[in-house]
Amino acid sequence: MTNHWVDIKNADFILIMGGNAAEAHPCGFKWVTEAKAQRKARLAVVDPRFTRSAAVADFYAPIRPGSDIAFLGGVINYLLANDRVHHEYVKHYTNATYLVREDYGFEDGIFSGYDAGSRKYDRESWNYQIGADGYVMVDETMQNPRCVYQMMKQHYARYTPEMVERVCGTPKDAFLKVAEMIGATAAPDKVMTIMYALGWTQHTVGSQNIRAMAMIQLLLGNIGRAGGGVNALRGHANVQGITDMCLYSDVLPGYLGAPTDADTTREDYLAKRSLKPLRPNQMSYWQNFPKFHTSLMKSFYGKAATAENGFRYDWLPKKDAPYDVLHIFELMHQGKMNGFICQGFNPLAAVSCVKKVRESLAKLKYLVVIDPLATETSEFWQDYGEYNESDPAKVATEVFRLPSTCFAEETGSFTNSGRVLQWHWAAADPPGEAKGDLEIVGTLFYRLRELYQKEGGTFPDPVLNLDWSYAIPQVPQPEEVAREFNGKAIADVTDPKDPAKVLAKAGEQLATFGHLRDDGSTSSGNWLYCGAWSQAGNLMARRDTADPSGLGFYPNWGFSWPANRRILYNRANADPSGKPWDPKRKTIAWDGSKWSGYDVPDMRPDAAPEENVGPFIMHPDGVAHLFALKGLSDGPFPEHYEPFETPLAANPMHPKNPLALQNPAARIFKGDQADLGKADKYPYVATTYRLTEHQHYWTKNVLSNAIVQPSQFVELDEDLAKQKGIASGDLVKVSSQRGYVRGTAVVTRRLKPLQVDGKKVHTVGIPIHWGFVGVAKQGFLANRLTPYVGDANSQTPEYKAFLVNIEKA
Amino acid sequence: MALQSLDIKARSATTTPSPSARGEAVKVAKLIDISKCIGCKACQVACMEWNDLRDEVGDNFGVYDNPRDLTDQSWTLMRFSEVEVQAGKLEWLIRKDGCMHCADPGCLKACPSPGAIVQYANGIVDFHQENCIGCGYCITGCPFDIPRISKKDSKVYKCTLCSDRVAVGMAPACVKTCPTGAIVFGSKEDMIHHAEGRIADLKERGYQNAGLYDPAGVGGTHVMYVLQHADQPEIYAGLPKDPSISPMVALWKGITKPLASFGLGLAVLAGFFHYMTAGPNEVEDDEEEHTS
Predict the structure, then answer these.
(1) Residues B64 and B71: beta-carbon distance below 8 Å
(2) Structural domain of residue B249, as residue ranges?
(3) Rounded to whole angstroms, how far apart are CA atoms A168 and A72?
(4) pLDDT tens across A29-62, in order?
(5) Integer Rg of chain B from CA
(6) CB of A695 less than 8 A from some CB of B
(7) Radius of gyration of chain A (CA)
(8) B36 and B210 Cβ atoms separated by less than 8 Å
(9) B57 contacts in A (CB within 8 Å)?
(10) Binning pLDDT at 50, 70 and 90, where does residue B283 land?
(11) Do domains A325-416+420-464 and A658-808 have the same CATH topology?
(12) What angle do CA A263, A267, A269 make, to 5 degrees?
């Protein structure tokens, strides 16, 4: 979230799209009811299904799964055509006035630089025109046809309300009603928030779905403001924490881009990421990248990392390819990976195309599952009849189960969707032989290091020299790890403006990432978390309910990254002169000498408004990007492409270009192409989703959850049910090109057939929570149906839009 | 069970006067705002947890309602209704069903077993299973079809409004857990006042017939609903429009008091009432259905 959970209460209008907050985030949803009750806020829901969120909404509009960009593009067009734009905000805080290179273009659904052979774009032309002074060229009047504003206007002119209806199936009047509600918040004293989740990410255009919404919020001037922002509702209690600490291959902790094969030297690697300002006076905060990275290396390798040896940059893995989940199982499937450790991860249930994942697991030599429960993954080799057919004698994979604690049996920190780190304390002892994850990983590391010490091996240095200075090496304590990720001064840290002034003495915990250095005098395991455990102690454990703003910031409750800031980009809550757009929702303001107020300023504290320092300090140009430059792999403007399995023969936006039917930059592995189904055999759109009664594949192990939602079902509309002779309560079989599931039919008016491009399109709904392990009734993993193709940027599989057939079982 | 902090003001099949030394107690009420309810069923789980209830793991039978019906193990249940009050405008109305705690409780009036059903001074109607003879008359007497007989011990169970929690100043478990604040609890007076605010908000959002459900036919209830369409309570999974106690119960009530005071055998009476209200077999069928 750019904002945080409690802040939703400050919104005038709430849009839930690409998510179902009431269903999947019922506790956070309370802030929606607060906004409605206290501010008379309005709530609109756009979703393929009339959801639990829709049940309490003021307005609901249906949409075909996988057509969100067409809808959002329609909103952008509506805002521009009807002058529902916060002009001053757009002019000063976005790149609307910046000029785009002459060689950038978009033709028949394809952006400039496309190579069909590699399915990749050369993004060179997706850039600004740079003047002789080295800065971006701008046109303050926004009349130049190459300025971002005009380019955007031209790009989205095609997204008319009629086109929205044709692509999305959303009736034109329903679309216009939502657009009007959104547009009303262009007024400087009105703010809207957007709550989205996996309904936007799990598409082959997932990242672009979110970008389209970010553009809308920028046009309305709603980012950086109380009650506004772009708010991703994350999964379980610590998914945000996982992302921040980066258990991914692309990034190091704190979203530091990981080195690749191309980054041969530390100097090149750091220089490429230390972006210089593209406009005068801009902070371009990533210029501090070397400080964050060097401190991380010190945290990894301690004394072994010195300036002389380049802080052991040579020990860091340099990735040769993306190692997202789809690529991992592809490699496993090809027999190129022989061992796999799953920690708190149930890939057989959670990854798309169960068939492929099961085949992959069976090719491993060993599989380690660290989990409090038996999972479908740990049981993949067992025969569960139709739910999981297997001949154990034929599976050579050796499976180790290491029982771990669950959240209530652990002490540590959770980072919630609103970036707030909250310390929690173990409430119960773990059962049986279960051990905490830290102990399991600590012991594993300790034993591996012993083996390396005794036997040597390939490249033992990073293992032997890893800084592992915990009191009991096999059992690192959560407090020790928390102090480590915060970071400390190794030598005295002094003020660059006044070297006599010591900011942090050697050995002290650091108070802020502002004190991190690139000379090896500081260490920090995650710059974003720096300050969470300072000399003042564990700030994550704070539970002060004081709220001076009355806006629900609770500055002394837990610790919010970065720097305990509750709303990101909060400089943008004020006009260029430093006055809040809406004094009643002031977060910070210019007080004549500095930025002050209720939140930690996202701005250099003494940057006077006349200096024109832009609020989007992480960007080298200081402004938000309506035109994304090279930021995403599949285009600087979001464009509608059909899902990889579509009921349509052509993209209605580009009927004559088959290359533009689907996202041309989305990756698909060779073998998986054949596993995609066509509309003649699988005529219905399907989408998978969660139910309030369950949490993923865990709570089917819990009796009370199993009682309130006991067995597998699928949802379909009355029209389709009639056509197929299916009644509510009948057993039905849903098949895709990749597999089938059976469940009880729930025939409902909450799903309606939609008229899309002259064709009636039915959507079949598949809740995901069943499997073959647990106390709920056994069921089929929903991902037996889903395709093995992901978003062009994040590679998140397309769980939300694919094709199926349905029949009475 | 008797609760020291709560006087019993009415007791089934009993003529002994109720205690009155402590004066009037504050009447409590639970208010369920259907316009805020997201049907998450956290209240069902909280009820199970607090009252140590575990129903069977059943099956989906074509709707979101689960378990399928109220049982001796499920004292509250979300009932989902898909309706179009205005053509083309779908509404998914989700009503938390359970005991309404009537001010004039039909169950208590119908009960022939002394002290099996009591009404506390704060308005809560409670079943004391140790006194229950399993005759099922409370089921007939209930205008809301709430009490359920257990197959295991042939005694009748229903929501207690967490009388044990309320007696020590806590809110019922369902109220405590409700994530959206759709269920609130307090004095009946305060709840009516709270409901007025909610109704004004709903009217402002276009629900012209929004209103409070506190039916007079049963003397008002200690569980009330805010309804978006108070003129049509029956669209909320059959919430009765004008609930009242069956005239047969009133008749029984008229006879039982003198008879009981003369000390006649209950078995004879039970048979009489059984025949008068439902005939000899139908009650059994009812029981079968409720306990299946």
Answers:
(1) no
(2) 1-287
(3) 10
(4) 999 999 999 999 999 999 999 999 999 999 999 9
(5) 19
(6) no
(7) 26
(8) no
(9) 703, 706-707, 710, 775-777
(10) very low
(11) no
(12) 35
Q: Report pLDDT for B261.
A: 46
Beta partners for residue A480, in sequence order: none
Mean pLDDT of B72-83: 98
**What's the token pair of residue A201?**
């990410």
Contacts 24+ apart (CB under 8 A), B50-55: B50/B162, B50/B165, B50/B173, B51/B75, B51/B160, B51/B173, B54/A703, B54/A704, B54/A707, B55/A707
Return all residues near B38 (Cβ < 8 A) that are at least 6 apart: A22, A23, A26, A29, A52, A53, A55, A56, A692, B94, B179, B180, B182
Buried/exposed B172-193: b ≥16 CB within 10 Å, e otherwise: bbbbbbbbbebbbbbebeebbe
Q: Which of A223, A199, A234 is nearest to A27 (CA)?
A: A234
Q: B73: number of CA atoms within 13 Å, CB side?
A: 18
Q: What is the pLDDT of residues A103-119, one digit of tens each?
A: 999 999 999 999 999 99
Please tell me the total count of domains within chain B: 1
A6-232 topology per CATH? Dimethylsulfoxide Reductase; domain 2 (3.40.228)
pLDDT digits (tens, 9 = 90+) for A723-738: 999 999 999 999 999 9
- Provide the H-helix boundaries in B133-209: 137-141, 163-167, 173-177, 188-204
Contact A26, B179 (CB under 8 A): yes
- What are the two backbone dihedrals, phi and then psi, of residue B91, each rounded to the nearest 5 degrees? -130, 140
Please indicate whether, in this complex, the C-beta atoms of A708 and B94 are within 8 angstroms of each other. Answer: no
State the burial class of residue A656 (Cβ atoms within 10 Å of its Cβ: 0-12, 13-18, 19+): exposed
* Residue for token pair 């005098």: A521
Distances from the Cα of A233 to the Cαs of A17, A61, A420, A624, in angstroms?
11, 21, 13, 22
Closest chain B residue to A59, measured at CA: B89
The DSSP annotation for A192-208 comes to EEEEE-HHHHSSTTHHH
| Residues forming a β-bridge with B29 | B186
Residue B226 lies in a domain: yes
Longest dimension (CA), chain A: 83
CA A206 to chain centre: 9
Dihedral sign for Cα B258, B262, B267, B272, please: negative
Q: Chain B interface residues facing chain A, Cβ-Cβ under 8 Å? A: 35-42, 44-45, 48-49, 54-64, 66-67, 74, 82, 84, 90-94, 179-182, 198, 201, 204-205
Does B251 reside within a domain? yes
Q: Give residue A186's identity as a one-letter amino acid code.
A: A
Distance CA A607, CA B128 (A): 72
CA distance A789 to A14: 31
At residue A594, what are phi and psi to the nearest 5 degrees? -160, 170
**Interchain contact, B41 vs A747, CB within 8 Å:** no
Place of tokens 């002058």: A83
Q: So what's the pLDDT on residue B285?
A: 45
* Side chain identity, residue A795: Q
Residue A194 backbone class (left: φ over 0; alpha: ψ -120 to 50; beta: rest):
beta
Strand partners, A746: A715
Q: pLDDT band for position A537 (50/70/90)?
A: very high
Angle at B68 (CA atoms; ends B65, B73), nearest 5 degrees: 110
Kindly report the CATH number that applies to the domain delimited by A325-416+420-464.
3.40.50.740
Quick count: other Cβ atoms within 10 Å of Cβ A462? Answer: 16
Contacts of A593 (CB under 8 A, 6+ apart): A606
Right CATH for A658-808 from 2.40.40.20, 2.60.40.1120, 3.30.420.10, 3.40.47.10: 2.40.40.20
- Residue B38 has its nearest CB partner, among A22, A730, A745, at A22
Mean residue pLDDT across chain A: 97
Both structure tokens of B260: 């009981």
